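Escalation from tier 1.

The customer reports that the assembly of two entities below gives different C-alpha cells on two consecutive runs. Tier 1 could not reproduce it. I'm attaching the input and our single run for tier 2 to review.
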Amino acid sequence: MLGCFGLCSCAREVQRIPKGFLSLNQRDPALSGNGKKLALIVDQNGRPTVQLKDLRNGNIVPLRYLSRHQPHTSPSLSWSARYVAAITQRGNKRLGVIEDRLTGTVHKLLIPGNRIPIRLSLAPDGRQLAIQVADKGKWRVEIFDLSRKIDPDLPVGIRGAGS
Amino acid sequence: MKISFFRKIPIGLSSVLCLLLLNACGSLVMRPIYNLNGIIFKSSTSYREPNLGTEWLATLVSKNGKEKIELIDLRSRRVVSLPGINSSDSQPISVSVSANGEKLAFIRQRAGQTEVLIYRRKLGTLQRLEITPKGVPRRVTLDASGRVLAVQVSRGGNWQVDVIRLSS
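Tier 1 run:
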C-alpha cells in the first residue's frame, strides 16, 4: 500500500473527446456526476451565462431560469444534471439558485446572515451543497443538507433519477 | 397588453396560475449543518474552492499565508492525510474529488510551471496530465467516477475547456 509519490506521466491513459469545443472564452467547467454533461460559463451577448452541453453529441441543453439573471458564475451539476446550481444576479445581489430540469422549478438559496455566495458545489447525489462565502475578511465554506428539501439524483438502478 | 390579458382570465384560473408560478420558483431557507461545520472548519483558517463528492469535501485551505489542499471525510468529520500532494514549493489553484473520495484532480504552480495532476489515494500515486495543445490550466473538475475530467485552459489569451477521459 505504500505508494510512490514521484510523478508518473502516464499520458497514454489520456483519451481526448473530440467534440470540437472551439468556441472562445469557455470557463468554470463542471461535469455531471455521470460524466455525460458539462456546464460552462460562456459569454452570451456579452453576459456570462451558464451553458449546459451534452458530451455525447455536443448539443446545447436548454435551461429555463438560467437563461436569465446574468452574470452567472460557479455552475455545478448533480449526477444526471437534473439539478443545475449556479450563482446569479438578482438586482444588486448575488443569489445562488438550483434549477431542477425535471420539474422546471427553481430553488433560490437563502443563506443565513445574507452573506454573499462566491462559489457553489453540489454533491453528485444532490443531497449536500457546499458554499464558499465571504465572512469577516475570510473565505469560509459551509455545508448545507438538502436531503429533506430536494429529491436525490441517483444513478438509475439505485433509485429513479432524472434523465 | 399584459394587464388586459390577465383581466380576461377567470378568477379561479388566475389563482391556479399564481400557484403554478409560486411553485415554479421556491426558496430554500438554508440551514448550515452547525455541528458539522463547527467541527470541520476552524475560524482562524480560510477555506475556498469547495468541491463535493458523496460525503467528501476537497477544498483549498489557507493558514499563516500558506495554501494547501485538504480532503475532509464528512462522515467521520476528519481531515484525511494526502501524502505527497502538498509540497512546500507548490501553490494549489484548483481541486476536484471523485464521489468516493479516492481520486483527486488538482492544478498547482511549481517551479514556474502550472500543471494538472491526478492523485490516487489507494495507490498513493501522482500522475501529471499533459495539456495539448499547450496552455495554462486554471480550473479542473472530475465526474463522480473520477474517469472524466474537464480542464479550463488559457490558450492565446482565450479560455477553452478540454474534456479528458482517463482509462482508469
